[in-house]
Design brief:
By secondary structure, the protein is an all-alpha fold. Helix content is 86%, strand content 0%. Helix 1 packs across helix 8 and helix 6 packs across helix 8 (187-213). It starts with a helix and ends with a helix.
Length: 254
């Protein structure tokens, strides 16, 4: 328990340090912009393929499984709020976070840990460069921006997957389908999806970076840092998702 509490406060302190470094990075971090761009390329662009397949599959599954049951009770119109609830509000942000955890959390944690073990971080400090501002902040921003964009991309393709399946069973014009989607899509749905994606991005990046910086001197700690980053990221994302979902239902009442 003491170790977990210490780990929590270490991560919280690291998060505060990163937030302090964001301002300096924006105003004088030109040298680290390349790191930010490369992080977005790896986390967002290279994850588009698997996100597309997963989003299309989820959207198609909801349509295939949900429509027959709704048709039995003559409530086919409920498929649209169901799609928004599952894809945009709930599964979209969480599955996107899981993709990022699987691809980027381990990579960032092991990269940071390797830099600590090889004394690269000490070298930055020795020449007056803040390692948090130069190394942590661009990865923090890159992961957070990427998961926000990937969540938006996931929602669009998830709804598109449902539309493709709907065309098989009934020839529905795209204007009618997406018009019904927009009619059932509310501002709270968009807000909670954005809040979840940004929260997950911050959690994953802070956990991965802090676990990487937490290693000491043994090279065997590098893979352990990666495993801890993945486990903690999964755990905290699920906890925050449950909390935000509960808050949403308390505020909106449905």
């Amino acid at each position: 328990m003491a170790v977990s509490r210490a780990s929590f406060f270490y991560g919280l302190g690291f998060f505060v340090q990163i937030l302090k470094g964001v301002w300096n990075f924006v105003h004088r971090g030109q040298a680290a912009y390349k790191i930010l761009i490369m992080q977005i390329m790896y986390t967002f662009v290279e994850a588009l393929g698997i996100s597309t397949m997963l989003a299309l599959g989820i959207g198609a599954a909801v349509q295939i499984i949900g429509m027959p049951y709704l048709a039995m009770i003559s409530q086919e119109g409920l498929i649209y709020p169901l799609l928004i609830t599952i894809i945009t509000r709930e599964l979209g942000p969480l599955l996107t976070a899981f993709i990022i955890i699987a691809r980027s959390a381990t990579a960032i944690a092991t990269e940071m840990a390797g830099m600590v073990i090889s004394h690269e971080v000490e070298a930055y400090i020795s020449i007056g460069v803040d390692p948090v501002e130069h190394l942590a902040v661009p990865r923090f921003l890159g992961v957070t921006i990427s998961i926000f964009l990937l969540n938006l991309y996931f929602s669009i393709f998830g709804l598109a997957g449902s539309f493709i399946v709907a065309q098989i069973f009934s020839s529905m014009p795209a204007s009618v389908y997406f018009g019904n989607i927009l009619q059932n899509l509310s501002l709270p749905d968009i807000v909670i999806s954005v809040i979840k994606s940004i929260s997950f991005g911050m959690i994953i990046s802070v956990v991965a970076i802090s676990r990487g910086f937490a290693v000491e001197r043994a090279s065997t700690e590098v893979p352990v840092a990666g495993l801890k980053a993945v486990g903690l990221s999964f755990g905290w994302c699920i906890v925050v998702d449950v909390f935000l979902a509960a808050m949403y239902y308390m505020i909106t009442g449905f």
